[in-house]
Design a protein that fits this description.
By secondary structure, the protein is of the alpha+beta class. It has ten helices and eight strands. It starts with a helix and ends in a 6-residue tail after the last helix.
Length: 291
C-alpha cells in the first residue's frame, strides 16, 4: 500500500492561508471595525458593537480556493437587542462599509458581504447577545432575530477533536480542510463548509500518521451515513438543516461525487505504486496534490 501521509501534509500547507494573507485579514478587519464603530457612534438609538472573528478562520479549517481567494467571517455583536428590525440593522452595517471596495457590497440573508478584488470575501453577520455566556441571536434579512451562536459551534468541534483525534494532533481539522478543498473543485453547488465540518466530525476515523487513511475512512463513513433525503442537522441552536439550500437533484449530484471520491480513495490506498496513488487523489483534490 502506498503511504501518502507526507504528500497530504504538504498539500495542507499549499491550501492553507500563508502568513501574508493572514496579515491582510487583520488589516482589512481593522479597517472594517473602524468604519463600523465610527458609523454607530453617530447613529441615534444604537450602541457601538463589539467584533469577533469566527467561522473557519477561528477553527483553523480555512482553505484557499483554486484562484487563491477565501471567505472570512467577522461577527458584529450588540450588547442589547436593537429596537430596529434585523434587516434595518443589517442595512446600517451595509451603509457603513459600502465604500470599502470597488465591487458591490451584498446584502445577503444572514450577513453583509464585502468583496475585495482579488483577495477575499468578508462576511459580516449581525448579532445581539445580552452577556458573554448568554444565547446569541443573528439578524435574518426579511425575518427576525434567530438563535445562533458560532462560539458554541466552535466548542462543539473542539470537543470532537479532544475525543477523536490521536493526541490532539490536528488530523480532524486537516480532514475537514481536504473535504472543503474537494468540494471547492466540484464546479457545482455543494453543501456549505459548516455542513462538511459537521459530517467530518460525526464520521471522523483517526489513523495515526496516515492522513490518507483517515480521509478515506471518513469519506466512507460520511457516504454511508447519508440518508434519503439527505440532511445535515446543525449540532447547536438553531439546530437547522445545513443543506436545506440544496434541492434534491443537487444533493444527489453531491452524493454521486462523494461516491466517486470514496471509491478512488480506496484504490489509492490499495495500490503499491506511488504515482498511481497520487493520480487517484489529485483527480479529486486538484493540481496542488502532487508528489
Amino acid at each position: 500500500m502506498a503511504n501518502l501521509h507526507s504528500q497530504f501534509k504538504k498539500f495542507e500547507e499549499r491550501i492553507s492561508l500563508p502568513s501574508s494573507k493572514k496579515d491582510l485579514i487583520i488589516e482589512r478587519h481593522s479597517t472594517l471595525k473602524k468604519v463600523i464603530t465610527e458609523y454607530f457612534k453617530k447613529k441615534d438609538g444604537m450602541k457601538v458593537p463589539e467584533f469577533y472573528i469566527q467561522g473557519s478562520y477561528k477553527m483553523n479549517t480555512m482553505v484557499q480556493k483554486e484562484d487563491g481567494s477565501f471567505d472570512v467571517d467577522l461577527g458584529i455583536y450588540f450588547s442589547e437587542k436593537p429596537e430596529a428590525k434585523p434587516k434595518t440593522v443589517q442595512s446600517y452595517v451595509l451603509e457603513a462599509v459600502k465604500n470599502q471596495t470597488t465591487l458591490p457590497t451584498e446584502h445577503r440573508r444572514k450577513c453583509i458581504r464585502v468583496n475585495y478584488v482579488g483577495e477575499f470575501n468578508a462576511d459580516l453577520p449581525v448579532y445581539y447577545q445580552l452577556g458573554t455566556n448568554s444565547q446569541a441571536f443573528i439578524a435574518v434579512k426579511d425575518g427576525d432575530w434567530v438563535k445562533d451562536d458560532p462560539e458554541k459551534f466552535v466548542n462543539w468541534v473542539i470537543t470532537h477533536r479532544k475525543t477523536k483525534e490521536i493526541g490532539n494532533d490536528g488530523q480532524l481539522l486537516r480532514v475537514i480542510k481536504y473535504l472543503k478543498m474537494w468540494a471547492n473543485l466540484l464546479g457545482f453547488k455543494t453543501p456549505s463548509g459548516a455542513a462538511l465540518t459537521v459530517w467530518a466530525c460525526n464520521n471522523f476515523s483517526a489513523s495515526k500518521d496516515r492522513d490518507d487513511e483517515a480521509l478515506s475512512k471518513t469519506i466512507n463513513n460520511i457516504y454511508s451515513s447519508l440518508g434519503k433525503p439527505i440532511i445535515c442537522q446543525c449540532p447547536v441552536e438553531p439546530f437547522d438543516d445545513l443543506v436545506s439550500n440544496l434541492d434534491a437533484a443537487q444533493k444527489d449530484k453531491f452524493k454521486e461525487a462523494l461516491r466517486m471520491f470514496k471509491d478512488d480513495a480506496i484504490k489509492a490506498l490499495n495500490t503499491m505504486d506511488l504515482n498511481s496513488a497520487v493520480s487517484y487523489w489529485s483527480k479529486h483534490l486538484g493540481d496542488k496534490f502532487k508528489v
